[in-house]
Specification:
3-stranded parallel beta sheet, about 10% strand, 6 helices, mainly alpha, single chain
Length: about 130
Amino acid sequence: MLERLHEYLTKQNITPTDEMMNRFRKFSDMLREWNEKINLTAITEPSEIELKHFIDSLTILETRKVHGSVIDIGCGAGFPSFPLKIARPDLDVTLLDSLGKRMAWLERILPELGVEAECVTARAEEF
């Protein structure tokens, strides 16, 4: 699992460490597990999560030089910001969404995955 992601990261000059790949794997597992309790995504097949959530989220690295701080407005289940933060732990990431149940889920899984990011539950125009 996650061979395509490993190859993609390498092409982006990101060294896919075991720790990083384990975070992606665990994030995929948790997404599928929690999706049964709260509606997070319609994409639930592991290979589709790898392609449509992880790799698609990281395509920003192909077109933009990403530095410093990133805010994901309307982050939903954490895409694209969560995969970006896993691949680029040097970034300061803020996840913003108005749906409290999604933000509660993200706040719960961040520490379990060892990922640091700020979660804000608010409407974009109010934040």
